[in-house]
Amino acid sequence: MVYTPAFSANLPLNTQFVDVPSTTAGYQRLGVDDKLGLLWFAYTQMGRSITPAAPGAARLQFAEGLLNQIKQMSYDEQLQVMRDLVRKVSTPITRSYGVLSINTKLAFWYQLAELMKEGVVVPVPANYQMSREASEVLAAIERLDFSQQITVLRNAVADMGVDPLA
């Protein structure tokens, strides 16, 4: 099944997700691969408006080194890096990511999604299906207004990686 906005519109409304904190909490409860899948769908559906909304997007050059390292890896290694970011495994890449500003992290994931669409970075498998929980969180994000959507995505990407100063 391919996920489309029309599919999410057919999901029953989950009243548990009605605002930024509850939607963010719903995202945080997801498993690693569902978090990655949800980000992929969110960025491909809302991506055109996410990047201009991120004031730190102009500072993406701070993340270019990380993106270039990821581009040089095999698909398996790329997927592992993304999972390590979500799981907060301490590696040189996750620590480098951890010092980026929140807006640069937002732009980093947008760029990663673009590289996935281009096939430079491991794409989401064609047969991937989000869990019901992930579909409900994505539907909740879609129901939020634009600034709330950006806040949920910022919360999601800010919580990834390892802050070496913490």
Description of the molecule:
The chain is globular, with a radius of gyration of 15 Å. The protein has one domain: Orthogonal Bundle (orange carotenoid protein, domain 2), CATH 1.10.2090. The protein contains nine helices and no strands. The chain has 166 residues and is mostly helical.
Find the CATH superfamily: Orange carotenoid-binding protein, N-terminal domain
Report, as a whole number of angstroms, the end-to-end distance: 41 Å
How large is the share of residues in beta strands? under 5%
What best-fitting shape do the alpha-carbon axes yield? globular
User: What's the story with the biggest beta sheet?
Assistant: none
Unreliable residue runs: 1-15
CATH classification, class level: Mainly Alpha
Order of helices and strands: HHHHHHHHH
- By DSSP, the count of extended strands is 0
CATH topology: orange carotenoid protein, domain 2
The rounded Rg comes to 15 Å
CATH architecture: Orthogonal Bundle
- Measured as a percent range, the helix fraction is 55-70%
